[in-house]
Restriction endonuclease subunit S
Amino acid sequence: MSPFELSQAVENLKVFFTNFSDLDGRYDPEFYRSREKLIKNFFYPLDKISNSFFIKDGDHDKLPVDAISDELEGKRYLRSQDLKNNEIISANPVYVSSEYFKKMSRCHIYAGDLLFSIMASVGATAIVPNGFPSCMANRAVGILRPKKYSRFLPEYVQVLFNSNVGMALINIQKRGGIQQRINLADIGQLRMPVPDENIQKKIIDIYSNALNLKKEKEVASQSLLDSIDTYLLNELGIIFPRQDNSLDERMFFSSVKDVSGGRFDSDFHRVFYKDLTLELLKKTKVEKIKDISLAVFQGVGKDEVSFSEFKLLKVKNIKQNNEIDFSEIEYIKHVPHRKILCFNDIISPFIGEAIKQYKFSSFVERQGKYTVDNNTGVIRINTSLCNPIYVCDILNSVLVKFQIDRYLGGGGVPFLGASRVKEILIPIVPIEKQNEIAAHIQSIREQAAELQREAVQILEDAKVQIERMILGDSEV
């Protein structure tokens, strides 16, 4: 048999050979090209995850409504969104009945298990700590349980999953489609570098120390941001009324004339809200948004195109702490002139759950034509009366948070709308004082942002150091 030869019309750089025994069940050439390009630089030998861990995932069945329980009676039911910042978080937890938990023994989770997201936010991880209450997981969570003679420390694998090298290996391994995911079979075939145990421990320590420093920076940053409300109340001389949720305090009387033509829900007329309004009126001059603005309106309806001179900002672009994310903008075919954003316009969610995030952001772009969608509102302040940045700071404060809560009430899709926003009360001080307050709060936000940048950089530097170790850099 004559030897195999490539046609001269084929580029050699696009062709490579591999043994059938090395195919790992994958027949797409791009997978092997990408993987070999990466792993050829590793200093340490590689081993498959399946050789050191039992691999499983959570419950494949749709969770029955009658299986849902509570914290007191049930067992924790973990989902991919419960894995964040290398730990299991407790925001909006789900619990299942003890009966359902017993029936799903295959999905039980134990201390020392390495959990990882295999859907949506692929790569999020957590190691179950000792003493964690009995729990199970759904199918979006993968479970790695160390074998007796595992060559990998679970904490080391967790670090790799969070490192640039590990994410590169995972991204090569995962399969796309409508929903990005990584299959358990793919995880089993995932080959990771295996340094000796001492090196693994050193890598774990580097990452753990960086993570702790990062958290310290983040706590300091959040502490600065939390201080803004205290500063603002002190500068305005406002004493926040005490909230008392006792039965006596929640019972009150209101005359018909006070509710006629208005709101009939009792929460709107709570004593606390009245006390807050009285405190504002007593300590400062107060104006409604409608009296200090040129316009308050919602954005435009959907008429999106792939590209246009008109750029569309949505609720997702509005961030906390008076920030706007311009990295994922969309485009719209046409915008009425009156709805094109102006410098220092204030934008905020006016419809939907995002209202409860209480986020208002100043639009400070001077280039391009921007607008917002119809779930988003715009407040255009009359700059001859107020500093828009000062007003935005007030809107982001606890003073307005409770006004928003009062207008939202309970039930249904949260709706604020232009008409309610116009009624929000803003304490007004002389313009010089407004400028001083705005400048000071901006300074606080900048300090907090710098701490956040430092926090991110600390972890990135640790990842680079770990990558150099895996590549065998002798200087590390």
In short: Residues 195-226+442-476 form one domain. The chain has three domains: 24-194, 195-226+442-476, 227-438. The radius of gyration is 28 Å.
